[in-house]
Amino acid sequence: MFSLKNLFKGVPGDKLQSEYKGLVGAINALEPSYQALSDEELRGKTAIFKQELQTGKTVDDLMPEAFAAAREAARRTTRLRPFDVQLIGAAVLHKSGIAEMKTGEGKTLVATLPAYLNALSEKGVHVITVNDYLARRDAAWMGQVYATLGLSVGVVNHDASYIYDASHTQKEEDAVRDEEGSFRVFYDFLRPATRREAYHADVTYGTNSEFGFDYLRDNISYNQGELRQRGHHFAIVDEVDSILIDEARTPLIISAPAAESEDLYRTFVRIAGELKHEDDFTVDEKRKAIQLTDAGISKAEKLLGIENIYTEKGIKYVHHLETAVRAKALFRRDKEYVVKNGEVVIVDEFTGRLQPGRRWSEGLHQAIEAKEGVNVQKESRTFASITYQNYFRLYGRLAGMTGTAKTSAEEFYKVYKLDVAEVPTNRPVVRIDHNDLIFQTEQGKFKALARMVKERHAKGQPVLIGTVSIEKNELLSAYLKQEGVPHELLNAKNHEREGEIVAGAGEIGRVTVATNMAGRGVDIKLGGIVADKEKAEEVKRLGGLFVLGTERHEARRIDNQLRGRSGRQGDPGETQFYVSLEDSLMRVFASDMIKNMMGRFGIPEDEPIANKMVTRALESAQTKIEGFNFDARKHVLEFDNVLDRQRRAVYAHRRAVLVGSDKEVADVLVELAQENAEALFVLKKKEDELGQEVLMRAARTIVLQTLDMLWVEHLESMEYLRGSVNLRAYGQRDPLVEYRKEGTRMYKEMEMMLASRVFELLEVLNKDVTSGVAPGQAAPAPAINLSIPQGSVLGEIGRNDPCPCGSGRKWKN
């Protein structure tokens, strides 16, 4: 009825509104009858909808009624009634699209409608946010909507899991939650729970990293009872551009220490310290890479006391040297990382948040630890890995929402087959976006910015300033102090309070300095945290929230996200960027002609100019780097697709062995025995000797442990292949084609080795080995209790029957 095939490709707001007119009208027509229902009758609708799904209706058929029920539940509990445009956004999500909704348009509330509708199929819905704080906040705030409709809600965090506690109904606290739930986490509504409980709730909130890591953990587990997730049915990704694009190149890796770290890291960091930029190595800031010169290699060889680093020490020393130089030239303290409690902690380049527990791979983290003089931790061995791109493609259906998706619409479609739809705002945007002001130097820019903030602060207008790093945050703070401007400083070092600080940024006279997009997802209300009409009107009279950007980001999306903090829900507001020719983007991409032209004008460093040529250069630089980054992500994906197909096959085998019936385990064994009639004979013989139940328990353990060991070795081989295959380009061979060809050959070798080792181990099994194992156990893996079917799982095979291994030869017993 509401088929929207091919609707989302570049659909503007007015056309979208027209397409959804019928759906919105149907939901609005149902509203009076739903408002007349008692709480019990409203909850009872969920059971009715589930029954209708079982009798042939689809979730699309139920959309108008389910959305009407969820809207009414939201009105009764949160005192928020989704507007018509929010219904459109909800429908876009349900239809597996990306809803571009401006800041303040209620994305958190919108997600409850498609989440409720898709949870009716009882397969689970995942709502994915960018950090643990937002996952807890959204579950505690929106949990009441789902609970009213009879659904359960789980939360998955880095170090804890929760279930929404619908029994906690203190009216006083409930009223405060309605007022402050957009930035505060109300823990009384969250009950600690196991990971498994949280995933088995109808709707589960969590971060992209936790969902991804739990998927990997499930695929290295030896106990069926430890499995956390129950499949990948439907996901709604909040801040979808941040997760599916900004973090797309970040691989999720589960690893363990492999060996003691060597003194080599400290040795090579010392050598890197002796090498000089330009003379001994060059830096490509666009690609974030370094290139050693012949002079640099010679100097390193002399310092190491060797004649030829390539022939004497092999690739290992070359890798250590290049990594140490990268650590020196491209990674700066308080920008890419901080040193906290004697550890190097990564700073997320997009949000400015600390990433404890995350480590750079390939020895880079150890090189930085050596550079900073802290304890160099052990190198690690990868046990499981996946990129976000391939993790999110596991979902049967995927949807997303953000305030800034249009500029990346091509990438969303090409990588994820997701179309972007611009959802119209409830009220027109009246924010004023001023032209950029361009300065010659960074110092001049900050001086002028501090003076301007002082003027705005004096008249009471709230100001929010976005910086690109902790370093710049603290530098700007020093300039503001010189001007005597009181301000709140928010960066990755004190992000525990970020929700409350950002929520209060609209207060009269407030000046907030925030790293990049810290506090993203938090609504800024004019007048302050607590609703006060008089204060809100006063701020509107002063011009609304003034948002200042201190540097253009590589991606236009990030700039637009910062602008979007101002002018929510039709409020007045202003935005402006202060840019200097010393900023990273301009330093790398601006032409020398522009720099020379500005120098000739003789303009003081703290005086701005407005020049169309410079503005065009900025826009051109952003377009170039967006294209470059898209190509880089696409390149990573093309390579990872090779490993992804192998990963899916291995994990499917593993899951069948871990949780499948004995017949499924036997099928895996028969598949392994293809082209090897002798192996199948061993299997049949051992079933006769040991009995079916004992053999299957032992086989599970043997296959799982052997597969895991070989898979870890295969991952290491593929990583080495990935690092070396680019050299083949010198021989006029495509590295991707070579990687695919070699990777396939290596995978087939792993399969052959798996079959060989499994049947070798099965052959030496005897009653002495298995006699101490009680039914339902398989040492050394934990117990797996399964119902065992009667008769041989391998079936009765007669002499001269076709061999079940698939070889085409006859069976000989």
TrEMBL record:
Pfam family, one: SecA_PP_bind
One annotated GO biological process: intracellular protein transport
Stored InterPro entries: Helicase_ATP-bd, Helicase_C-like, P-loop_NTPase, SEC_C_motif, SecA, SecA_CS, SecA_DEAD, SecA_motor_DEAD
Lineage: superkingdom: Bacteria
Residues covered by the Helicase ATP-binding domain: 88-276
Species lineage: Bacteria, Candidatus Adleribacteriota
Similarity comment: family membership: Belongs to the SecA family.
Known cofactor(s): Zn(2+)
GO cellular component term, pick one: cell envelope Sec protein transport complex
Domain Helicase C-terminal, residue spans: 445-626
Domain SecA family profile intervals: 2-610
Membrane topology: Peripheral membrane protein
SUPFAM superfamilies noted in UniProt: Helical scaffold and wing domains of SecA, P-loop containing nucleoside triphosphate hydrolases, Pre-protein crosslinking domain of SecA
Protein name as annotated: Protein translocase subunit SecA
Intracellular or extracellular location(s): Membrane
Keywords, in A-Z order: ATP-binding, Cell membrane, Cytoplasm, Membrane, Metal-binding, Nucleotide-binding, Protein transport, Translocase, Translocation, Transport, Zinc
Gene3D superfamilies linked: Helical scaffold and wing domains of SecA, P-loop containing nucleotide triphosphate hydrolases, SecA, preprotein cross-linking domain
One term of GO molecular function: ATP binding
